[in-house]
Amino acid sequence: MTMAIQKWLLFLFLHINLHDLILAQLPDLVYASCGDKGNYTENSVYQKNLNSLLSTLSSNMDKHGFYHASIGQNSDMVSAIVLCRGDLEVQECRNCVNNVTQKLVQSCPYKQEAFGGYDGCMLQYSNRSISDATSYSVLYYRCNSGNASKPEEFNQERNKLFDYLLTRAADGGPLRKYASGNATGPDFQTVYALVQCTPDLSPQHCFNCLAGVTYRNMTLCNGKRGGRIIGPSCNFRYESYSFFKDVALEAPPPAGELHLADLI
Asked: Is the CATH number 3.30.230.10 carried by domain 27-126?
């Protein structure tokens, strides 16, 4: 074996092990779902398109942390959408996206479709279009184990807060559909909540999406001190403690407001 080949093999060995070490040091995803739409093969055109697209997400997303793009044709097409939580600073958002792009591929090896994220950002990629405003699938949910005191009164205050936030997020405009806030429940329990849609949704589609996931949570997490539901188009979370930064948002227009009670 020549010296040149030995050096090249040593470089390759160190590069592979360094990459594995970096991945191992990244925090585990809070949630991940590997799709069942098929697998891709090593060094395929699909894998090259996927790697190329994922490498551009953090640099191409807008200042509010959203980006949606596709690359490739026919069976080699890859579509991806990334969204950061509305209170994250730009650099914090980019770091989150860089981490999730690496970790999700590792968590779903050779899967053509995957969805996952951290508290601060989410990523979905697929071999089909994922920009379908009428698809409000829920891909992750969790309820806290702790029970609220006076759960019926707690649920009422939580639902009022949801109603207010849903309207604000839906009317958030084409750049950011996000709202957060808090309310005081029984026995001085504070409820903190945020809701968010991908900004490419229309106000009506955003509201419908959020109304669907919040109504589902009301069924799953009634009386619990916290819970969350996350889908590719919208998400929400509530807790008994503050978990987000305050963000100054423009007030929604007074006309044409929507309310959760109108749809459930």
From this structure: no
Instruction: Report the 10 Å Cβ neighbour count for 99.
Output: 20
Q: Among the residues of the chain, which ranges form H helices?
A: 3-25, 45-54, 57-60, 90-107, 151-170, 203-220
Same fold, 27-126 and 140-262: yes
Per-residue pLDDT tens over the stretch 114-152: 999 999 999 999 998 876 555 667 678 899 989 988 888
Q: What is the DSSP string of 164-187?
A: HHHHHHHTS-SS-EEEEEEEE-GG
Q: Per the structure block, which two tokens stand in for 249?
A: 């948002």
pLDDT tens readout for residues 199-237 = 999 999 999 999 988 877 778 888 899 999 998 899 999
Residues 6+ apart with CB under 8 A from 177: 169, 170, 196, 197, 198, 199, 201, 206
Residue spans per domain, the chain = 27-126, 140-262
Answer for the pair 203, 171: CB distance below 8 angstroms, yes or no: yes
DSSP SS3 for 154:
helix
Q: Are 105 and 121 in contact (CB under 8 A)?
A: no
- CA triple 149-155-158, angle to 5 deg: 110
In this prediction the pTM is: 0.81
Rounded Cα distance between 193 and 168, Å, is 13
Query: 140-262 architecture in CATH?
Result: 2-Layer Sandwich (3.30)
Whole-angstrom CA distances from 99 to 116, 117, 194, 246, 262 are 11, 9, 23, 24, 39
Instruction: Report the distance separating Cα 29 and Cα 90, nearest Å.
Output: 20
Neighbours of 200 (CB within 10 A): 16
